[in-house]
Structure formats: structure tokens, C-alpha cells
Amino acid sequence: RMWRLTSDVLRAREKEKEERERAREAMKEDEEGDVVIKRGEKDALAGLAPVVMDIQVEWVPLADVVTPEQEADVCDEAAEAEGAAVKKEGDRDSELKPSPSKAARGVAERSMRITKVTDERVAEMMSRPVTVVKVQPVDGSLHPRDMAKLCEGLRTHPSLVRLDLDGALIGDEGCSELARVIAQSRTLQAIDLQFNGITDVGAKVLAQAIAEAEATPALRDLHLGRNDITKAAAGELEKALHRSPMLNLLLSGNKLSSAELDQIQQWHLTAGDIRGMLVECDAARRKRSEQRLAALKEEEEAEEEEAEEEEA
Fold first, then answer.
1. How far apart are CA 223 and CA 252, in angstroms?
2. 260 to 208, 244, 263: CA distances (angstroms)
3. In whole angstroms, what is the distance from residue 207 CA to residue 239 CA?
4. CB atoms near residue 282 (< 10 Å)
5. How many CB atoms lie within 10 A of CB 289?
6. N or C terminus: which one in the chain shows less Cβ crowding within 10 Å?
7. 148, 127 Cβ separation under 8 angstroms
8. Taking Cα atoms as reference points, which of 207, 258, 198, 265 lies closest to residue 225?
9. Residue 9 binned pLDDT confidence (cut-offs 50, 70, 90)
10. Is 40 left (phi over 0), alpha (psi -120 to 50) or beta?
11. 10 in helix, strand or coil?
């Protein structure tokens, strides 16, 4: 009996040790201290399910994907260089070169500005490894026909990471086209939709695209600030965050109160939140193991005392 109990404890300890090792391997710290979850490590984190209320998280390799923070830096640097890089050629669009600081670190980044959507410009965008696309319609708003043409290429673009539609006035109709891009693109991580005249109708369409996609979208930043979104879309936006809790959903400047914003954002998880959950799970496993070992030790001592009494 003693041998069987000891064997069971040893096997349990080995299993917990392996789980802890897999959990440690599933985490690695990048340059800024964020946590990256690697593909194939989902089983090691199965204990998180009760904690995160059965939230679905996408487990994808991010080592070769440019982060939204890097892309924001690229856009800022590109904007500063635009005055020198862009030549006035009427409605001719211009392409910006990657910043030297990023290129020095071996990051292939290219930013492209589009002022008029044509078949030629879409074909040019698809043929080049651009990671940032900035759309600035020359007439102030992007026609639904042009939006459909642009999104047809964006859905399958192999390297696009950031799409900037700030002030393009795509409206709710444009959101319908963009929803298909969100659902199908495996590289697009950030979309800026500020000042686009989006109402609850468009917000619901985008939220449903995230919540009902077959695979969790790669999207990590969705800026819907300064539109006409009200609490009527709150339910759909909550579902989107429940499906993709790592999504950074920005809604400032809409017709939403602070309480309504907090209600929507309750599902959002940061890398620090996930790190904390992993630490708590590991501590709980260790505590259970120690309790089992303590119980086994007490049982062994009791049996030894009984044996001594019988011999006496």
C-alpha cells in the first residue's frame, strides 16, 4: 500500500512539474516586457478556462509580425518625412520609404498613402510588401464603390499590419466591406476609424465580424473614437471583446458615458492580466501538491505509530 501511494504521489509531482515547465516555455518576455503566447502551448494553459470565463483566445506566433506600437512609430516617422518624400503630381498617390532607424534593426516596413482608389493603385498595393496603408480621399470621403474595391485587395494582402482610415468618412456602408477584411485577414492588427461618421449600425457590423468569425481575428487595435456610437451597440461590442479579449477597443468621443465604456471594456485583457493568471494557476498547483504531500506524510506517520504499537 505504501509503495502504491508513494508511486501515485511521484507521478502526480512529475505531471505537475511538466505542466509548470510547459507553462514557462509558453511565455517569453520581449524587449518591452510583454508576454507572447506561442502556438501549440494552449494545453499547458488549460487551467485558465475557469478563471477567464471560457474566453476564446487565439494562439498564434507573433515573432515575425510587426506590433501595432512599431507601426504607430512608422506612421509618425512617415508623416515627418512626407514633406520631403512626396512630390506634387496632381492626384498622383505617393509611397513613403521605411524609416532608417527601423531598417537598421532589420524590420521591413513600408508605408503607402492612397488618395484615389483605382484598379492600378490596388494592384500596386497588392504587388508590394507594404505594412501600413493610409487612405486620404482627395474629395474628402471614400465612395462605397471605392471602399469595396479597396477591401477586395485588403482581404488577402500578405503583409498589411495597419490600416489608417482616419477621416475617410466611410460611414456604415463602408463598415460592411471592412467587416469582411477583419474576418478574413490573418495579418491586419490595427485599424484607425476615427471621424468616419459611424453609427450603431456600423459598429454592430464590425463587432459581429469579430465575434462570429470562424477563427479569432488577428486584430489587436480598433480605434472607433469620435463617431456617433451610442449604448445601443454596447451589447455587440461586449461580445466582440469576449471573443477577442486582447483587442484594444478605443471608443472615446462617442455618445457613451464612462459607466457604459467600463461595461464594454470589462472583457479586455492585457498581457499583464494573462501573466498574472499564469502565476496564480502555478501557485494554486503548487499549493495542491503540497497539501497532498502533507496528507500522505500524516498517513504514513499514523501507520508507523500503529505498527510500533503492534510490535510493542
1. 9
2. 19, 19, 5
3. 7
4. 16
5. 16
6. C
7. no
8. 198
9. low
10. left
11. helix
23: pLDDT confidence band, cut at 50, 70 and 90?
low
Which residue is associated with the grid cell 503492534? 310
Distance CA 310, CA 18 (A): 41
**Per-residue pLDDT tens digits for 35-81:** 444 444 444 444 443 333 333 433 333 333 444 444 445 445 544 54
CA 169, CA 193: separation in Å to the nearest integer? 9
Three-class DSSP category at 249 = strand
Closest residue by Cα to residue 128 from 104, 102, 167, 97: 97
Answer whether 166's CB lies under 8 Å from 145's CB.
Answer: no
Predicted local distance difference test score (pLDDT) of residue 210: 93
| Pair 131, 111: CB distance under 8 Å | yes
* Residues 269 and 245: beta-carbon distance below 8 Å: yes
| Nearest alpha carbon to residue 52 among 66, 65, 62, 37 | 37
Sheet containing 162-164: which strands, arranged edge to edge?
95-96, 111-114, 132-135, 162-164, 190-192, 221-223, 248-250
CA distance 206 to 255: 17
Name the grid cell of 85: 518624400
Taking CA atoms, 305 is separated from 136, 292, 293, in Å, by 84, 20, 18
**HSE (side-chain half, CA atoms, 13 Å) at 122:** 14
The count of residues in the chain is 312
Picking from 87, 105, 104, 126, the residue whose alpha carbon sits closest to that of residue 96 is: 87
State the sign of the Cα–Cα–Cα–Cα dihedral 112, 117, 122, 123: negative
